[in-house]
Amino acid sequence: MNALHIKNTVLAVLAAAGSAIAQALGGWDVALKVLICFMALDYATGWLVAAIWHKSGKSKTGALSSDAGFKGLAKKCVMLALVWMGALLDQATSSDFARDAVCMFFIANEGLSILENTAVMGIPYPAFIKNMLDAIRQASDQGKQNTEAHT
């Protein structure tokens, strides 16, 4: 086997695994894309707060901590497990509500955490973004449809 064949095999396996995971999470739609992006942004901004500003609330010194980083990644994995649970509930009830509500709840939580991190960095943000995220979190926590969050 040459290097190109090995590379193509590895890429094919990764693509198949990614596709299977996305399918298990209810499909690669806008809600899942936004959630994954917000999770990555939250992790990155949290890392910056610890690495540069040394003001992380996740460690004793406020600086980077491998333990805090691992716990953060573990929490994000559990969030995705809850999205999976929502997708399974939707399959069991022939609906598309539970998974979307779980996604919206975590999108709001991750978004609010990103705003908290940017505030620690001294970066201002428009108040309407926080208000919008608060409304989404409250609506999804109360079990309302996504469209009801904007009314």
UniProtKB/TrEMBL annotation:
What are the record's GO terms for cellular component? membrane
- The answer, when asked if Membrane is one of the entry's keywords, is yes
* Alphabetical UniProt keywords: Membrane, Transmembrane, Transmembrane helix
Q: Pfam families, alphabetically?
A: Phage_holin_4_1
The protein, known as? Holin, toxin secretion/phage lysis
Recorded topology in the membrane: Multi-pass membrane protein
Reply yes or no: does the keyword Glycoprotein apply: no
Q: Which residues cross the membrane?
A: 32-53
In its UniProt entry, the species of origin is given as: human gut metagenome
InterPro entries, per the entry: Phage_holin_4_1
Primary localisation category: membrane
Q: Where in the cell is it found?
A: Membrane
